[in-house]
Amino acid sequence: MDILEHFGINYALIAAQIVNFLIILFVLKKYVYKPIFDTFKKREAVVKESIEKNEEARQALEKAQKEEKEIIKKAQATANQVIKDAKEQASVILKDAEEAAKKQTKELLEESKVQIMQETKHAEQQLNKHVSRLSVELLKKSLANVFNDDEQTEIVAKAVKEIEKRPN
Fold first, then answer.
1. 38 and 46 in contact (C-beta within 8 Å)?
2. Domain ranges of the chain
């Protein structure tokens, strides 16, 4: 203990410093450290809550992005189906129009053939009548110098009967 006194250590001073230290420690712990620790705990809770909210927001964003992709896929599929249906309808309409045009063309050709045949028959009849008249007139002119009027009339009548017997 002499050694301690030799270095200048005073027991009463050390005991007073220990008491002062304990009083300051008690005051700091009661009035300073506790509010600081409470503040730190509140900050920690706020940070944890922010992290949780951030994670929830990230998950909600991922979910929204997945839903968006699904909606886009569905919209594309719907659009592709609409395009396919439109092409099929256009094909059907085009085919129907072609068939109608072919049918109408065929009908027009048939009508034209019938009309041409009728006109040809009529023209043949007219031509036959004209040829018959010309033949009779030619016969009359040819017979005028050879036969008398009665004989001419009789020959012309026979020729007309023969011409009328012929099929047209």
1. no
2. 2-165
